[in-house]
Amino acid sequence: MSLRGAYRLVGRRLWPVGLAAAILAAAASPSGAATVSARAGRRALSANPTQVIDARTDPDGAAQALNTGCADMSNCSLANISITGGYGPPRLLGDVLYNCGPVSGPDAYTATSLSDTRGETTNISERVSLKLQGGLINVASTSAEFSLFSSQSQSFNTTVTTQNQVTVAPGYKGFTTTQVLSANATASYYITRGINLIEVTGVDISFPGYQDKQDAGDSQTRRSSTTASRSR
User: Fold this and answer.
1) What span, in angstroms and rounded, lies between the C-alpha atoms of 173 and 94?
2) Contact 225, 176 (CB under 8 A)
């Protein structure tokens, strides 16, 4: 099965059933189904960390180690990265519209031309400084593994915009959710602290808008799901 065909299957599984479909205009062409995984540490692979902190199970400890150890990024390097192309999670675009009018009507309609810009995030974004987050993302996105995965040389934001309305009958609520194809990476970092070597693992990073080299012809438009359900 082609990469594009695989993505369509993923899209059908992930998109919720809706009453209509709104066409999205994307500022980038995110795609890619290949997985890239490689050891990318800047130091010898035989180095044994004196401490390992998992950002998934101990996000506070991982953030503290990164905030302290990577304040100077020369002491921080990428140890490992695994990159997979796929859809990001569904995300609300705009507000939920509640039609609280009488049963006799009229219908209500959600707004059009609502935009949502999505940039790179990590699972510890709220716990590390913006400067450090940018540093960690930059190290990951400029790795040799990313150059194999993506045809893009640098990161950028992806913007999606609704063009169609959702019809919401009296007593119902309506909303639009969107998903965009992204590069989803799991990275680990080495922190050099004196004679100690700390490894922070399980740093999940989402790169909306990255495009797999093998699927460069993928369309720049996306389809979202629109839903209306009884509100009372």
Assistant:
1) 13
2) yes
Q: What angle do CA 180, 185, 189 make, to 5 degrees?
A: 150
Query: Residue 66 corresponds to which tokens in the numbers above?
Result: 């990164």
* Those residues with Cβ within 8 angstroms of residue 141's Cβ, 6 or more apart along the chain or in another chain: 120, 154, 155, 207
Residue among 152, 185, 174, 167 nearest 230 (CA) = 174
Structural domain that includes position 45? 3-230
Neighbours of 232 (CB within 10 A): 8
Is the C-alpha dihedral spanning 11, 12, 17, 21 positive or negative?
positive
Q: In the chain, how many domains are there? A: 1
Structure confidence at residue 225 (pLDDT): 59
Cα 48 to Cα 4: distance, rounded to the nearest angstrom: 40
Stretches in the chain below the pLDDT threshold 70: 1-47, 88-89, 153-157, 211, 214-232
User: Is 203 in contact with 187 (CB distance < 8 Å)?
Assistant: yes
- CA 8/CA 219 separation, integer angstroms: 12
Look at the block and give the residue holding tokens 């369509």: 8
Separation CA 209–CA 131 (nearest Å): 21
Q: Which residues of 173-207 are buried (b: 16+ CB within 10 A; e: fewer)?
A: bbbbbbbbbbbbbbbbbbbbeeeebbbbbbbebbb
